[in-house]
Amino acid sequence: MLLVIITCVALAVLFLLIYIVLKFRAKKNPVPSKTTHDPILEVVWTLIPAIILLGIAFPSFKLLYFMDRTYEPEMTLKVTGHQWYWSYEYPEAKISFDSYMIQDIDLKPGQQRLLEVDHEVVVPIETNIRILVTSADVLHSWAMPALGIKQDTIPGRLRETWMRILKKGTYYGQCSELCGINHAFMPIKIRAVSKQEYEQWLHDAKQKFAD
């Protein structure tokens, strides 16, 4: 919708500029007009932009509301930022664990430097996942560019976003809020699997990470 509106506005402005250049050129108007204002034009070029902005605003408000609300969530993932690592909790499964970056000397062949973690987040595909983020100390930002997520974690506040991953695979992100000396060493790793694989991981994780 915005592309259509912007294109129409650009074409209208271009037409007006061409019209003004041709109609009011010096050769055709050797004596320039001394008109200072026109009440009708003032009203028109105030009302038209106002109507356009209202037409953009109302659908945008609806979109902003639903961006922050998970539609029929099937599971919840709680994320807590620390200096300088992430903690994850699966409330329904009563599982929680910390996720630290793997140091260079401990990397295995094929692993990504500054992106690998000791405990990755595992989630099922085709699932509406509510994500609750907070911080235990300072501001952090849980950012996953490939999933369109960037949510600041604020001490004392619980913020909400959501995701629905359609393709199996591994997705990487990082902290995107300057949070101290090791800010650059807080990677995020999410592994999206089938629902059957997720159930198997959940079974194993309950034994490994159960509170």
Q: Which descriptors would you attach to this protein?
A:
single chain, 211 residues, alpha+beta, 2 domains, 5-stranded mixed beta sheet, 31% helix, elongated
Summarize the helices and strands and which ones pair or pack.
Layout: H1 2-23, H2 39-67, E1 75-82, E2 85-90, E3 95-99, E4 121-124, E5 129-135, E6 140-144, E7 149-153, E8 159-163, E9 169-175, E10 187-193, H3 195-209
Parallel strand pairs: 1-5, 4-10
Antiparallel strand pairs: 1-2, 2-3, 5-8, 6-7, 6-9, 9-10
What does this structure look like?
- The protein is α+β, with helices and mostly antiparallel strands and 211 residues long.
- The chain has two domains: 1-11 and 39-67; 75-209, Immunoglobulin-like (Sandwich), CATH 2.60.40.
- Helices cover 31% and strands 28% of the residues.
- It has three helices and ten strands, in the order H-H-E-E-E-E-E-E-E-E-E-E-H.
- The chain has helices at residues 2-23, 39-67, 195-209, and strands at 75-82, 85-90, 95-99, 121-124, 129-135, 140-144, 149-153, 159-163, 169-175, 187-193.
- It has a five-stranded mixed beta sheet with strand order 3-2-1-5-8. A five-stranded mixed beta sheet has the order 4-10-9-6-7.
- The two termini are 49 Å apart.
- The mean pLDDT is 91.
